[in-house]
């Protein structure tokens, strides 16, 4: 089962592009990552990480990374989860847009996002990569 990381985080891309397929959305935002993930799920991929993982709200961090696997069948649980996550994110962003953080803070958010993915990848029970 192949794994795909969808991310707009350059740190995640640089760390994992040589180990697995990474869809790097260099100019994408948080919602772009969710929508790309949704599109992949509708073509037969399955969520391996929760789209709203971590304690950061969509209007707090500009970075998001999600892992899916090729499944070839529609995984309805993944469809519901990603659609609900997109709706929840839209609600957050409707009330408050993500601030225009300075480069230091952006780098901190990239590190937090990378840490969330690393914790999944390191877990031998998860056997992601």
Walk me through the structure.
With 129 residues, the chain is an alpha+beta fold. 47% of the residues lie in helices and 14% in strands. It is built from 4 helices and 4 strands, in the order βαβαββαα. It has a 4-stranded mixed beta sheet with strand order 2-1-4-3, sandwiched between helices. α2 runs antiparallel to α3.
| Number of DSSP strand runs | 4
Order of helices and strands: EHEHEEHH
Alpha carbon gap, first and last residue = 10 Å
Please, what is the average pLDDT? 92
Oligomeric form:
single chain
Largest sheet: 4 strands, mixed
Helical run tally: 4
Strand content: 5-15%
**Which range best describes the helical content: under 10%, 10-25%, 25-40%, 40-55%, 55-70% or over 70%?**
40-55%
The spatial strand order of the largest sheet comes to 2-1-4-3
Compute the CA-based radius of gyration. 14 Å
What form results from the Cα inertia axes? Answer: globular
pLDDT under 50 segments (min length 5)? none
């Amino acid at each position: 089962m192949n794994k795909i990381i969808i991310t707009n985080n350059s740190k995640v891309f640089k760390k994992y592009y040589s180990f697995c397929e990474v869809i790097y959305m260099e100019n994408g935002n948080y919602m772009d990552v969710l929508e790309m993930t949704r599109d992949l799920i509708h073509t037969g991929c399955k969520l391996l990480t929760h789209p709203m993982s971590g304690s950061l709200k969509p209007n707090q961090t500009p970075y998001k990374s999600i892992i899916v696997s090729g499944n070839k069948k529609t995984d309805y649980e993944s469809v519901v989860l990603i659609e609900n996550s997109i709706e929840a994110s839209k609600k957050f962003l409707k009330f408050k847009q993500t601030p225009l953080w300075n480069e230091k803070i952006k780098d901190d958010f990239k590190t937090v996002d990378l840490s969330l993915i690393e914790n999944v990848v390191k877990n031998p029970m998860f056997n992601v990569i």
